[in-house]
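[Solved] Which block belongs to which protein?

Original post:
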Amino acid sequence: MPYRALSLAAIAVCLAFPALAQDTSMPDDDGSVDAETQMARNLANAALDAAPVFDGHNDVPIQLRSRFDNQINDFDFEDTLATGEAHPQGRVMHTDLARLTEGKVGAQYWSVYVPTSISEPEAVQMTMEQIDVMKRLIARYPDSLSYAENADQVESAMANGKVASLLGMEGGHSIGSSLAVLRQMYALGARYMTITHSRNTPWADSATDEPEHGGLNDFGKDVIREMNRIGMLVDLSHVSEDAMMDTLDVAQAPVIFSHSGARAINGHARNVPDSVLARLPQNGGIVMVVGLPGFLNDDRRQWYATREAEIARQKSLYGGQPDVWETAILAWDEANPEPQTMISHMADHIDHIKAVAGVEYIGIGADYDGMPTGPVGMEDVSGYPALFTELARRGYSQVELELISNRNAIRVLREAEQYASRVADQPPIETLLPAGD
């Protein structure tokens, strides 16, 4: 891959920054920033101007369904700051065209997620509806968004100042345990599939469900082979460690983790263990680091578990008396505020993945509009420059920042396409899920 050469001035800036543990993205109280932060900000902006962010996971499509029932003819994606009115908790959407520009986003995988609580046939239909609504939204803004299905189209869109817009399926239930449906979803534009979501599929184990298959069963391994054959990226966010390992045993093209962190930094099952990170260079895949506080900040994860235990305790003590236990939880919340998650927590995950796998295997997949908020200073899609400023302060070079922002993601997409091209003469896999599975 051709990397941009750093100027001598940029190299000097990189060498000047020691690794810092504290969050450094916020200005001083008077609005000013110190010289070191300004230099880091300049380096980050230079990197993002050269290589705008290619984010692995954004949940705008499910927001369009849950808030507007996919009725978007009157939806204004230029500015979504008034969308809190359409949400039961008053949450404003994280994404709009203005903030994508501010965040220096150049490419986005839009997640056509559907819940795991519905049947597989319902999931197939609903996924198609989500593909439809996102394609319609992209088409409404041709000056800002450009539908893309391959790496060349991504690079062309970014060169023309548009956000390259690709589609990714979140959850293997969306194919109804059918390789024929998988192929048709690819034909409709889906360029990755997260092989599970929060529950197991009939052929793969989720990270957050009771193990059922020991990773992937035989049909699941053929799902991976067929995804490789047609050029669809295999996304291992949400899957069990055994399923990650089984996939790496089978995969002939790079995998992605569209929105995950490092389990060594935060022990959540949704994060990637070092055993998998160590294998990533051989596969060539990437971890696109998530922005969800509960996956980043282990203190936040521990706080949430303690709070859930307290809710269960209060319900056990005062079952049938919601006014009593709800009052007790309000008092607990006041005495035990949620730990803040900072940009530095997200940078810690990037540091760890770099140390174990290497900087060539890192991307960004924040999960905006699929979580309540991002870290402080990165609450929505406008916040990416603050993260890259923090990385610059920690000593990341412009080349490294560009690798993380989009060059690794483009490489992985292109290599998946190249593998599919090499095996184009192979017939489709026709395996059926055995009856009873």
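(Second protein starts here: sequence line, then its structure tokens.)
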Amino acid sequence: MTSSLDWQAIHAELTGIETITDPQQLTKLSLDYYHFSPILQPQLADKRADLVVRPVNEAQVQQVAQVCVRHKIPLTVRGAGTGNYGQCIPLMGGIVLDTTRMNQILWIKEGVAAVEVGVKMAAFDKQARLQGWELRMYPSTYRTATLGGFIGGGSGGIGSINYGQLRDRGNVYGARVVTLEDHPRILTLRGDEVQQINHAYGTNGIITQLEIPLAPAYPWAEVIVTFGDFLTAARFGQALSDGDGLVKKLVTVCADPIGGYLTALQEFIPPGQSCALLMVAESSLDPLEALVKDYGGTITYQKRAQEAQKGTSLAEFTWNHTTLHARAVDPSLTYLQTFYFDLERVAAMYEQFGDEVMIHLEFLRVAGRAIPAGLQLVRYTTPERLGAIIECHEAQGCAIANPHTYILEDGGRKVIDPLQLAFKEQVDPYGLLNPGKMRAWGEKFDRK
């Protein structure tokens, strides 16, 4: 699709914008953590951009958009590349638009902030906390991930125990988006309109700015609790998540032997023990200790907020960083993403699969209640066996957000979003944005 293009001429049309053509850099900036999946590895390993651009402002984004439309060049938008499903990998070459130089915090006031899309989440929180605020939720890649990348390719994370997922109404207030029409426009989306671009992998617009709500900043203490029995640990996690008077930000529960893969924490998680990794407000430490006692747990690690801010955060052993640490020990491991909805399904799957599917729970709010979701570690053997494990979970009423596909609709909701398709038809009529990722767009042409 791009082999016949005159890339020297295209360079000339991008005057004033940083461009990258070095092969090693092109490789680095064309890939993400897709290698977590043995299914995606062979599908995506050889995908590369022909050119990477790093605009510094919205006007330069419009310039890139105009060049892509003029020459019908595929355009893939990238944040920090910390996703796991190939969200920002260019399937058809072309240009990758790296947003990391668009990193200005525009304003923070009264629990709301406006930012450029490339602002790093940890850098943002450092400034927001000066005013008593912080991000509502963030992924375990918090130190390097960008806000735009999180909105475009993420779904939830640390803080979701309080605020649910990004797609929940009120978690994104507004966005500015550059279109890929013959004459690229800048659109301002407000309220429910942002769902058109929320978690859309950049398939239907280039986000340049975001307006997001914030949460009150607490001094977060970090705690590890161990249990001799996984299901007791899971019940403890549910009780803590349900405890309205306990202020928390993270409730992670890992079945034995997952603690053995978290090498930096091994002195706090003895062999044979399941564990809970927690972030709670310092003011909730005393009632937390009482809850731990009720469930027969043992606190093996505790850091108050000031100490916890030094070095590696406990959050970096949770969510998909658990997978990262486990794969550093055993690269044959892969993972699943599961909504169990209740502990009965957790127990059923734990009994059925044992150590083949090691259960790692993250508690989050869904429709007003705390539920257990899984980022299970899977001892991978064959695609067929992985498919059978997924089918078994779904037959038991679990919902799988499949991390082994790069297709937008096949990963999470399993349905076509008519709003996102209609918006793409409006703003990307030539289908240049991240082509090959939106099933609805391909099916549109199959029906013709």
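Accepted answer:
You had them paired correctly. Confirming on the second one: The chain has a mean pLDDT of 96.
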